[in-house]
Amino acid sequence: MAKYTLISFKTCPWVQRSAILLREKNTPFEFRHIEPDNRPDWFLAISPHKKVPVVRIDDSVSLFESSAINEFLDETVEPRLHPADPVQRAINRAWTDYVPTFASSVTGCAYAATEEDYKKAIAKIPEAFDRLEKALEKQGSGPFFNGASYSLVDAAYAPFLQRYVFLDHIHAIGQLEKFPRLKAWVDALMARPSTHSFPPAEFEAMYRENLRKRGSYLSQFIEAPRAAAE
Ligand SMILES: N[C@@H](CCC(=O)N[C@@H](CS)C(=O)NCC(=O)O)C(=O)O
Hints:
By secondary structure, the protein is of the alpha+beta class. 54% of the residues lie in helices and 8% in strands. The chain folds into 2 domains: 4-76, 3-Layer(aba) Sandwich (Glutaredoxin), CATH 3.40.30.10; 86-218, Up-down Bundle (Glutathione S-transferase Yfyf (Class Pi), Chain A, domain 2), CATH 1.20.1050.
């Protein structure tokens, strides 16, 4: 079996998509975490956009861009997670292409600098959720995007839906409950072991700490971690 190394920033959602796929395929891999503010030269040499994720295969081939990585993994490592039907595959790919737009509606809430900007960002959530709700209704029974079968679409959305849940914990947004299929999907993804690269509570604390340091509107609702007892 090939050796896979996943170059990562610890809380990067795009890295998480590829980590999820490797876990879904029961493929052993090693994380190599680097710091966003201190990207080493060896990394800059293999990452054309200077971004993570990069997957190194057998220390010789480097792949970048999470969707391209995940398509490659699906073509080369069993079990195949793309549906067999080409029409359904095209629909799945189309919904994966919507992820960056969807993700920006979630990060818009996280990073809004002022209360006014935050309210504007929150106001955009129902439309984004409604699109997913309608897509899920067309797909059938759930709990995953293609029903009982887990697919690349699930891996693509899970990190961003997880971050919405984190934001909802910081300062209740209360939108997810209005979209029952989407809520069931989120619950299924959050319960799926492959979603998690770190113990869930530890990861949520890491996410909150990043957001607290960022100084966005939501930062004020996050308590600073307590200093270790002397
Ligand atoms: N479209 C890329 C997005 C990757 C991405 O934006 N990664 C962020 C970290 S979460 C990054 O490396 N940012 C560094 C930068 O933009 O310089 C993918 O799907 O892999």
